[in-house]
Amino acid sequence: MRELPVIRMLPDQRRLHLNDGPIDVIVEANGAPQPVQSAYEAAARRFVTILDELCAELPLLRTRASLNAPRPSGSIARTMAAAVAPFREEHFITPMAAVAGAVAEAVLAAMTGASVLERAYVNNGGDIALHLAEGQRYTIGMVERPDRRSLFGTFEISAQLPIRGVATSGWRGRSFSLGIADAVTILAETAAKADAAATIVANAVDLPGHPAIARMPACEIAPDSDLGDLLVTRGVGALFGREIERALDAGEAVANRLRQEGLICGAALSLKGNVRVFPPVAPRLASKGAPRSLVHA
Amino acid sequence: MSEATPADTIRCDACPVLCYIKRGYTGACDRYANHEGQLVRVDPHILLDRAKSQGAPLVPFLEREGEWDGKLGKETFLTAIGAGTTYPDYKPAPFIVSSVVEGVDLVTVVTEGIFSYCGVKLKIDTDRHLGPERNFVRTQGETVGHVTTAEYGSQMLSIGGVRHLTGGTKSEGRVTCETLLDLCNGKEVELTIDEGAAVRVASGQPPVVNGQPEERMRVGCGSATIGMFAKQWFGKVDDVVVVDDHITGVLSEHQAGKMLGVRESGISIKGRRSTAGRYFQVANPGTGWGGTDISDPLKILNLFKPKVAWPKLRLLMVSTTGEQFAYYELDEALRPIEKDLPDALRESVVRIRENCEPALTTVLFMAGAGGSLRAGVTVNPVKLTDSVKHSITRVTCGGAPAYIWPGGGITFMVDVARMPENAFGYVPTPALVAPIEFTLSKTDYALLGGHMDYVRPLEAVLREKERQREVAFSPANPWPLRPRKSGGPEE
Questions:
Q1: Which of A48, A145, B171, B261 suits a disulfide with A182, CB 3.0-4.6 Å?
Q2: Do B181 and A149 touch (CB under 8 A)?
């Protein structure tokens, strides 16, 4: 039976929690109390119809993106389709690869449309849309694995940078991945663009045919997965250091190209404690931890 | 609800994504799973935290995993909400935890029960006629219960029960389960009664009858109000009319007024006289005075009888809830002229109002703990029943106190408003999943054949288990681990 969306303040009385089916969003806005309140109300109003809007054209959104595919009608669905369009010629990708980022953007747009805010973020399960007024900044923490709290470094995002979206993908996350990255974090102009690119880069961090990697057709796990019978990663066994480097190299090559094409601003790739970072500005890395190298584009 | 599909896959309809979920997997939300072919919620396990409740409202702790450091800086009670069940029956309960309270080793057996024998009793505070006793109550056209007794100021409905859940059509069972789940989780449900009203009800909320929200329970009908307050009016006013859509009362004509020796006032009321001082149908039903459609109470009066009435006669008119009132004195032509309410009468009007409590819907969940659930507690299930009957074992539902029916079995009732939110789930059988905790001393637990090998310290459980969520303990409830008064029965 249909559960109603959850709309409530977290116990800190600062952040707003929105949940509907698989969509789980944390929102925080900074500014004067009244504009923040109005922004939260606008966020909630926008949020409550999102899942139904998306589900109305779910079959289309789960279909491989192509030039000939019908254009979705919902505004969020269109953002999703546009975000995956640059990848559709060379990769298998469906608009669902950008759903989390596109939803975050839509909620943020409702907030900034209703209020003048200093800054705000909409964090949709790790895919984040940012608003920064002039002079404002956010510090973004990066984790090696999305299922653990293991902050290995931070990015500063200031208003003058073009970055307003952050997204993370990896085989340990809630969505399936074709690759073996523990986490790929992408910084891009928008959350939907970051989301789509994170999927592509995480898929590229891979060792095709490696015996230590367990894979399974996506539809055997989730019968209605948009990935159909594509093999998705279910486990990654022990790897040699050079194999890890090789997998990261493959991901880095793709990330580099996306950056040259202007599709992303920065990326952090993590596999078994090894980290590669493309910074828009030099990130601050935590002092202890696994070996990592800065990649200079 | 979910529909069965081939190859161990079920379809979840908790949200419009309508995931197909294979056995052993969760849906896209990670909150609903296919457990042994049944759709179950896998929400975080709820901990009641007493320190958090100090003055604070009940606020769920919403962060995901990793927030709980396993330290016990405060008193914590592990509820059965999200604990999982004992299916397939012979297994010990999912959590059997020990804690030391004031030097006494206590054991709490924590499990979620799957109840086909269950339902709710609704008490709807309203004087409106909801429907004839025994008539069916429906949601979405399906019969989900029936009208039972009328109580003072309230109408009782029985919703659910095994005959609606599994004894009727598949659709009846599905809709009944859905209705019960919503009522137990505090959500609003629309019920229609055959040959009666449509009501919208939610635990702890005012009922809405035929679109009209109830606000206050009347202290009584107009006639009863006269009876209750006659003495307080006597000598301070010459006549009182209590305006009520059901029975309007008149002090000077009413038995209570006669007994006190109130003088005849010559007042004349429109409407149909029932017995002395009691009138039906003084106006049409509405949202005005006393549930009538009038806003000017003088509209229900004819002219005063000139042979009986006298100038300066003092008249109070008041509604059954005290929300409306007016005071008049007759002029030389025996016409009522409105004046300020004298202080001497103000108190009685305020008192009428005070005696009208907020109208609410209350939802009591009632279910029986079957043999299988009891087997999760002890190898000899009847011993648990005995222990509960003798108040050696305390039964709580999500930490809220449960009333145990006398007689055989463990049939209990609990006010869902006292439980943490969203404490109930369901399986597509259809049946409800409700939390139940049994707390007793470790010595007694051993004596009744408890699964002693499975007893683990609370701290260890808190450290190990993922997906826990802390919820402030409602200060209105007795603490489930409070020491038992020696010898005395459970309060």
A1: A145
A2: no
